[in-house]
Amino acid sequence: MKTTLKLGVLGSGAGSNMQSIVDAIDRGELDAEIRLVLSDVKDAYILERAARHGIPARWIDCSPWKTRLDTTGEEEAIRLLREAGCDTVVLAGFMRIVKPRLLAAFPMRVLNIHPALLPAFPGIESWRQALDYGCKVAGVTVHFVDAGTDSGPIIVQKSVPVMEDDTPETLHARIQVQEHVAFPEALRLLSEGRLKVEGRRVRIAPPQA
Ligand code: GAR
Question: How far apart are CA 16 and CA 89, in angstroms?
Fold first, then answer.
């Protein structure tokens, strides 16, 4: 069934992925509205970007942990996302591991973007991991979030070549170009009701006439 996604975005950084979603909506390529942006980083640029687009945006206190969403932060996030009427949660550069409570509040409606071809290189700075490993191909994965780390069923992947003179920064920049295609694409498939999860596999139905 086709629906207009009501998105809540969680991010910790510059928000270029959130921007790609805003742009896809504006171009009429994605049937969605961003209801709320939350960040665990007070001065993250994603909050400023959201505000510029008139999207409600706020910081949530997630201390003391650096890489986990603690129970208080998680409860607050769930409350705010529910209040804003969100039905789908987008992790767009959110650098904390979300816990089962949030996943249970939005079952199979939490999506993450990861800058690697999973299951290779989960965790942080995956582009650097790929380069250090000597990969000739790197890429990006959009997946449903499960209780593990970067381990949920895969929706969309895009690959990029690793060049001889790549630095971590140039490789990350090339991956990000594909991120900005992959996330709107995955969300469009979700909004068009074309995703069916069968165990680890996400089946993509053909577009409806
Ligand atoms: C993106 O490269 C995203 O894939 C990565 O953080 C960056 C956020 O950029 N996410 C992770 O590494 C999650 N493990 P953005 O703030 O410009 O969207």
Answer: 16
